[in-house]
Every structure is written in C-alpha cells, then in structure tokens.
Amino acid sequence: MTKGLAPLACKTDKVDAKVLAELARLDLVPAIWLPSPEVRAERERARFRLHLVRHRSALKNRIHATLVTFGKPPPLPMKLETLVAF
What three-state secondary structure class fits 2? Predict the structure, then answer.
C-alpha cells in the first residue's frame, strides 16, 4: 500500500512514519480483519486436534521402537487384525 509513496532511496523509519501518518490522515490505511470468536475457537480446536494426533503418532512410534528393541513383534494394525479375525 505504501510502496511508491516514498522514494526507495531514502527508506528510513522517519520517512516511513511520515508516509504512514499521511495515509492515516487521508483515511487510506486499510482496516485489519479479525476472525470472529467462533472462527478463533474452531481454529483452536483444529490446532489442538493436530497436537493430539501428532502426540498419538509419537506414542505409537515409541511403543513400536520399544517392542522391537526387546525383540517382541509389534502388534498388527487394527484394521488388519479385524480382517484376520474373520
């Protein structure tokens, strides 16, 4: 938005501050978008679910590695066990 309003050769904080002040004075600074509380809550749930899925995978990998270390066969995946049972 501010590109082209100040010469690139004299790019300093002072020049940037003047440009931003002028944009604010002319009401040309765009408003920021903030997600609604519902969207923020949904994002937080998605982040937490991802955390849980990664933690579950890490635990499965750790159990598998421990079993292999002690010479025990790792358990079959749940879906394959179901097929073998029939």
Answer: coil
